[in-house]
């Protein structure tokens, strides 16, 4: 038996890098479906079984997939559908309607969209219906097969399910769930939501028609499992054109995950959120640093990506303030300390600032009212300070009461990092806290 | 020295040209470019670029998109008074006017996504499409579903599209209550003093040497840096005060090398200029004053007050023909935009350099309820306004800009 030697294809390094970027970006940015789902076996089986019962056996069902953002709800559903649609019968018969609470903001729009997705626009034509229920019944009736014996099964996916609960009288939800309880048309209503308290939002009559079946995607992942996931996410698939490069890459990924500093960084990310999306963002930033000069992900890349993800945006903004604006913030902080967080206005802040100026003979900071006013306004535009009362537009600007939207630690940190911060300003800031 | 702007999918020469046009922003441009990736690759569905005004956010992204010829649409949220304009702009830029015309009247987000998807199926994205939204903080005030939908537009329309949001407000203030798709955040840091010096010194004047201009910028920054680090404002100030700086040179009193004398001449002037440095502040006050005058002075008296050298006016004309009912008792009258501008430019004279943002200042006055917009919705071409402030208020404003408004009020003649 002769061993057939597979001709090893070698691509130039530039093309390999491009291909790596393409593959990994598909995975991280385009929410490409993974081959296998991990850690959600029971949920997957449950959902698949439920969908099969509608698609194959003609049973009507309703279920809610609940989990925080980025937990993988859509991925779970799409994977289950992918497996289901492998059966020829299902692929031929099953109709799918996708509604999104962000887009279909009221029932009229939703009905139009359902009609469109079921390709029944011509059938409906110019008909006018008395109620939502009538319209929906008409549509479902139109789906019945020619011999009137049975109807094609319909899958309704309601993304951002909780938003549908805000529609007037929850008409859409009521009617869809009503249909799912009657025996007329095999209908599966699958809702996806990030709200754990979604059932509280439903009216009694809607809730009673719901099967109360919920699939939860609350991650019980441990840190070792998380590390494993990072590795799987970064590995190149088997079909990669350049096998040698792929092998090297996967090796470097393993080394990367064994690095102590990388483990620390990942531990920090794991502690703040375990969901896929934030992981994908971190990995995406690391991968974006890969180039021909840098053909593998090094620990430094991951560290830099982590730094970018966890930077404090307010601190960044404080870094760019003028010294006058910074002084005003320190003055506000002092006022907060003296008056226990009571709101202040520009006059008070200016007054406090003047006290600082009087202590030192600082003529360079002795600015006139319009200049101080403008600095104050800039802070307001940046939303670092906010008016107490939204309708305060009628009062003159110098006297509008404001609150500071920063806390002590943020201000102190900003002072430490501020480029060439004058020592007396720093001391003034410290003096209140000592 | 390795160029900071490098990418395997783009020619080195092209990238070097781009980097030349982005002084002191090469690092940010490099990061942005690496996140955007190659034109056929996918990028993160939404990117949030934040940083102070005039920190180069808009400049860098537009330079990249234009020079690298990437398909994109730019929307300035300030100009989009309705979502329809937003949708129209995007469809127009990405798919052409035929697509934009498919939008129904008062389109919903559902309509927009539907049309986008239709267009996509006809012309799928060969390269990543970018939608840039400037002043993105204004999206928070529009329909509640707009921002979350834009953040995940890639998923909703099933297309290779990335939405880029530009703002000076941090992301924490954008996040909706129930969360949303978190965009990738990129920070554009403020320019350091050295970088400001470097950039501003590039605008040298033809008649003078680069060293002279550079030392002028140095002096300017010395005076203004502690209050203002905004590149645009500093550039404006530099242009405004340069002629005064050069006065002693013009008059032959000093030579270019007498930096100390030049400094002594300009420094007090700059310090005084700081009062009027916030020309936008001042011009906004004058705009409000002009609005008050337009509301409370009958239109026919404009010529008398605001046209120079109007010649002798017969006062008796005014008093005899019309019962002098004080306009202040009747309340403010509406006036068209062009009358406001006419009075404004006449009142302002040479005190304020014309800024391009008059219209945005007018809208900000409306937002602050200092001006009220009147008239029907279909009179978009000729909006009318009314001044909504009291006499005391406008007198206080006028005092801050050294303008005697009473002299210009018909009721006080």
TrEMBL record, chain A:
CDD domains, per the entry: AAA
Free-text function comment from the UniProt entry: Component of the origin recognition complex (ORC) that binds origins of replication.
Organism of origin: Myripristis murdjan
Gene3D superfamilies noted in UniProt: P-loop containing nucleotide triphosphate hydrolases
Alphabetized InterPro entries for the sequence: AAA+_ATPase, AAA_16, ORC4, ORC4_C, P-loop_NTPase
Protein's name according to its UniProt entry: Origin recognition complex subunit 4
GO cellular component term, pick one: nuclear origin of replication recognition complex
GO MF term list: ATP binding; DNA replication origin binding
Signal peptide span: none
SMART domains in the record: AAA
From TrEMBL, chain B:
Domain Origin recognition complex subunit 5 C-terminal: 285-409
Membrane-spanning segments: none
Keywords: ATP-binding, DNA replication, Nucleotide-binding, Nucleus
Annotated localization: Nucleus
Superkingdom: Eukaryota
Domain ORC5 lid, first and last residues per copy: 213-280
SUPFAM superfamilies: P-loop containing nucleoside triphosphate hydrolases
Domain Orc1-like AAA ATPase: 21-164
Coiled-coil ranges (or none): none
Pfam family of the protein (one): ORC5_C
GO biological process: DNA replication initiation
GO molecular function: ATP binding; DNA replication origin binding
Cellular component aspect of the GO annotation: nuclear origin of replication recognition complex
Complex and partners: Component of ORC, a complex composed of at least 6 subunits: ORC1, ORC2, ORC3, ORC4, ORC5 and ORC6. ORC is regulated in a cell-cycle dependent manner. It is sequentially assembled at the exit from anaphase of mitosis and disassembled as cells enter S phase.
Family assignment from sequence similarity: Belongs to the ORC5 family.
Reported function: Component of the origin recognition complex (ORC) that binds origins of replication. DNA-binding is ATP-dependent. The specific DNA sequences that define origins of replication have not been identified yet. ORC is required to assemble the pre-replication complex necessary to initiate DNA replication.
Protein name per the record: Origin recognition complex subunit 5
Organism the protein comes from: Myripristis murdjan
Designated gene of the protein: ORC5
């Amino acid at each position: 038996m002769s061993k057939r030697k597979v001709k090893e294809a070698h691509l130039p390094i530039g093309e390999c890098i491009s291909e790596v970027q393409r593959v990994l970006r598909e995975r991280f940015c385009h929410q490409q479906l993974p081959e296998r789902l991990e850690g959600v076996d029971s949920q997957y089986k449950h959902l698949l079984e439920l969908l099969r019962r509608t698609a194959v056996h003609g049973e009507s069902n309703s279920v809610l997939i609940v989990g925080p953002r980025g937990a993988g709800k859509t991925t779970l559903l799409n994977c289950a559908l992918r497996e289901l649609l492998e059966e020829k019968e299902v692929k031929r018969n099953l109709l799918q309607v996708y509604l999104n609470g962000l887009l279909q903001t009221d029932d009229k729009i939703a009905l139009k969209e359902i009609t469109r997705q079921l390709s029944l626009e011509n059938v409906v034509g110019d008909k006018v219906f008395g109620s939502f229920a009538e319209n929906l019944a008409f549509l479902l009736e139109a789906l019945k097969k020619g011999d009137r014996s049975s109807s094609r099964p319909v899958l309704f996916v309601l993304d951002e399910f909780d938003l549908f609960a805000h529609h007037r009288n929850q008409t859409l939800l009521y009617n869809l769930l009503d249909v799912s309880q009657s025996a007329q048309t095999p209908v599966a209503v699958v809702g996806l939501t990030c709200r754990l308290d979604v059932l509280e939002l439903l009216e009694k009559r809607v809730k009673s028609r719901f099967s109360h079946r919920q699939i939860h995607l609350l991650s019980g992942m441990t840190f070792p499992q998380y590390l494993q996931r990072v590795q799987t996410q970064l590995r190149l698939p088997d079909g990669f054109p350049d096998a040698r490069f792929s092998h090297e890459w996967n090796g470097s990924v393993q080394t990367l995950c064994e690095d102590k500093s990388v483990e620390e960084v990942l531990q920090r990310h794991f502690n703040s959120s375990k969901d896929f999306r934030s992981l994908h963002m971190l990995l995406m930033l690391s991968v974006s640093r890969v180039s021909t000069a840098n053909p593998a992900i090094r620990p430094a890349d991951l560290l830099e990506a982590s730094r970018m993800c966890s930077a404090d945006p307010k601190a960044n903004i404080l870094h760019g303030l003028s010294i006058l604006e910074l002084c005003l913030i320190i003055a506000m902080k002092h006022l907060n300390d003296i008056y226990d967080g009571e709101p202040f206005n520009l006059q008070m802040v200016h007054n406090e600032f003047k006290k600082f100026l009087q202590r030192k003979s600082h003529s360079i900071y002795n600015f006139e009212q319009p200049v101080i006013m403008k600095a104050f306004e800039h802070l307001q535009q940046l939303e670092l300070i906010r008016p107490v009362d939204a309708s305060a537009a009628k009062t003159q600007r110098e006297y509008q009461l404001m609150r500071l939207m920063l806390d002590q630690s943020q201000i102190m940190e900003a002072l430490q990092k501020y480029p060439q911060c004058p020592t007396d300003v720093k001391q003034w800031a410290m003096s209140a806290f000592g | 020295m390795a160029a900071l702007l490098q990418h395997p999918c783009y020619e080195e020469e092209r990238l070097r040209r781009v980097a030349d046009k982005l002084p002191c922003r090469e690092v940010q441009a490099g990061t942005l470019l690496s996140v955007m990736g190659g034109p056929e690759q996918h990028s993160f569905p939404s990117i949030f670029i934040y940083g102070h005004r005039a920190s180069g956010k808009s400049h860098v992204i537009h330079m990249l998109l234009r020079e690298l010829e990437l398909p994109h649409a730019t929307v300035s949220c300030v100009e989009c008074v309705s979502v329809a304009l937003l949708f129209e702009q995007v469809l127009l830029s990405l798919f052409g006017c035929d697509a934009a015309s498919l939008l129904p009247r008062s389109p919903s987000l559902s309509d927009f996504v539907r049309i986008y998807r239709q267009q996509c199926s006809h012309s799928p994205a060969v390269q990543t499409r970018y939608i840039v939204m400037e002043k993105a903080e204004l999206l928070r005030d529009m329909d509640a579903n707009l921002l979350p939908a834009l953040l995940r537009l890639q998923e909703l329309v099933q297309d290779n599209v990335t939405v880029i949001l530009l703002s000076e407000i941090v992301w924490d203030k954008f996040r909706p209550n129930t969360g949303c798709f978190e965009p990738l955040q990129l920070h554009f840091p403020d320019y350091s003093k050295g970088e400001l010096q470097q950039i501003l010194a590039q605008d040298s004047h033809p008649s003078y040497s680069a060293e002279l201009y550079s030392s002028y910028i140095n002096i300017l920054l010395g005076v203004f840096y502690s209050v203002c680090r905004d590149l645009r404002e500093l550039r404006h100030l530099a242009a405004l005060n340069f002629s005064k700086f050069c006065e002693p040179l013009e008059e032959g009193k000093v030579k270019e090398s007498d930096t100390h004398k030049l400094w002594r001449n300009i420094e007090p002037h700059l310090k005084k200029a700081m009062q009027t440095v916030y020309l936008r502040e001042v011009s906004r006050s004058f705009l409000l004053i002009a609005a008050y005058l337009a509301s409370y002075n009958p239109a026919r008296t404009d010529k008398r007050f605001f046209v120079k050298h109007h010649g002798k006016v017969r006062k008796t004309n005014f008093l005899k023909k019309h019962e002098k009912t004080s306009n202040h008792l009747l309340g403010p009258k509406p006036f068209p935009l062009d009358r406001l501008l006419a009075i404004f430019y006449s009142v302002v004279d040479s005190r304020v350099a014309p800024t391009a943002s008059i219209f945005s200042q007018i809208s900000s006055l409306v937002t602050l309820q200092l001006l009220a917009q009147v008239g029907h919705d279909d009179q978009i071409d000729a909006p009318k306004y009314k001044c909504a402030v009291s006499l005391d208020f406008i007198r206080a404003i006028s005092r801050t800009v050294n303008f005697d408004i009473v002299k210009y009020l018909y009721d006080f003649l």
